[in-house]
Specification:
163 residues; alpha/beta; Rossmann fold; 7-stranded parallel sheet; two-stranded antiparallel sheet; 9 strands; 37% helix; globular
Length: 163
């Protein structure tokens, strides 16, 4: 039996219309491919991705920073209230086999960092790029479209070794 793949979609709680459109398409594509979407459960990129996944018949999990599961956006099917604040970012990425980052601010950057530190592949769609000592760090795998981001995430999630 094939196990479902868990893909985290991360990005800002507030986002541009373009980022929301990309996130919604990513969510819809993840649903179409049978993957489970994990996110921080709030607005912006998270809500747009969940909306796309829900409309596509997929499953959405929101790992929330606060104590109230009702704070989740309306497209989160499985809300998990943690009471951890930003520390919940670790739970978001550690729950996934790959991460798709769309836009985002410093919270997204922290999630990217935790994922990369844990060996979880990060696919970037109009998000952060990294450099160290003036040299580009290619740890974030770039994607040019939502479909390419999902292709790369599912491919890399497949090739990861199980725990």
């Amino acid at each position: 039996m094939d196990k479902k793949k868990f893909i985290a979609v991360i990005g800002g709680g507030q986002c541009s219309k373009e980022e929301a459109k990309l996130a919604k398409e990513v969510g819809r594509e993840l649903a179409r491919r049978g993957a489970i979407l994990v996110c921080g459960g709030l607005g912006g990129v998270m809500e747009a991705a969940c909306k796309g996944a829900s409309l596509g018949g997929g499953t959405t999990i929101g790992i929330l920073p606060g104590d109230n599961s009702h704070a989740a956006n309306p497209y989160v099917q499985i809300p998990i209230a943690t009471g951890l604040g930003y520390a919940r970012n670790i739970a978001v990425v550690k729950s996934a086999q790959a991460v798709i980052a769309i836009g985002g601010s410093y919270g997204t950057l922290s999630e990217i960092s935790h994922a990369l530190q844990s060996g979880i592949p990060v696919i970037g769609l109009n998000t952060w790029s990294l450099s160290k000592n003036g040299q580009q760090d290619k740890s974030i795998i770039p994607a040019q479209s939502p479909t390419e981001a999902v292709d790369k995430a599912l491919d890399l999630a497949t090739s990861q070794k199980p725990d």
